[in-house]
Amino acid sequence: MDGIGDICRKHNCLFLVDTVASLGAAPIFMDQQNIDILYTGSQKALNAPPGTAPISFNERACQKMFNRKTKPVSYLFDMTHLSNYWGCDGKPARLYHHTGPVSGFFALRESLAILAERGLETSWKKHKEVAAYLYRGLEDLGIKLFIPDRDLRLPSVTTIAIPDGYDWRELLMYIMKNHQMEMTGGLGPSIGMVMRIGLMGYNCEKHNADMALHALADALKNCKKSKA
Whole-angstrom Cα distance, residue 30 to residue 226? Predict the structure, then answer.
């Protein structure tokens, strides 16, 4: 992320960052990195049930949002309406926007309290150590990491190149059926190129990495490999 926010400031555009799988697992500094809008998901490294999506706007983004001339096509996408619901727009009148998932908010608050007690630096270190452990195990299996540069990898989600000659869908289905474990394929342009392993939050443990490695080794042994 370093430097991208500076470029956005230079060209007078907003910098929005998706930290769904990284907040709590890897260092991210909204102010220092000149991030204007940052959002995440409750169910990943924050370790809360799915259903809530924390989002943050800095002053620069708020000025842009509150001074725009056109309205969104739907109030569902209207952040000014949402900010009023949360009491963030400075207006005394509060309008109805939606019924909030109250139990989800309390669960998220507790998960954040646990993370704060543990310490962000400790969480970052744990995710990095478990990721490194997983990398070594994958390399021992002869599996290539999709991102060659270790410093550019996200510690909470590891992308591996699909082993030559294997059908990635067959590998994933075998692992789900025989090990009750869900790994996923790529997204967008990476579909058919990678498989993804997520170890984050509560699941960020070496014994879970061992389970993933065992499942992969078993799948490689028992799934058909083309001769081409």
Answer: 47
Residues in the chain: 228
Per-residue pLDDT, averaged over 145-167, amounts to: 96
Instruction: Give yes or no for a contact between 52 and 42, defined as CB atoms under 8 angstroms apart.
Output: yes
Q: Judge contact between 71 and 78, C-beta under 8 A.
A: yes
The whole-number average pLDDT for the span 23-38 is 97
Q: In the CATH hierarchy, which top-level class contains the domain 4-118?
A: alpha beta
Residue appearing with tokens 């704060």? 116
Q: Checking DSSP bridges between strand 16-18 and strand 184-185, what pairing results, if any?
A: unpaired
Phi-psi region of 72 (alpha: psi -120 to 50; beta: other; left: phi over 0): beta
- Model confidence, pTM: 0.91
- pLDDT at residue 92, rounded to an integer: 87
- Provide CATH code, domain 120-222: 3.90.1150.10
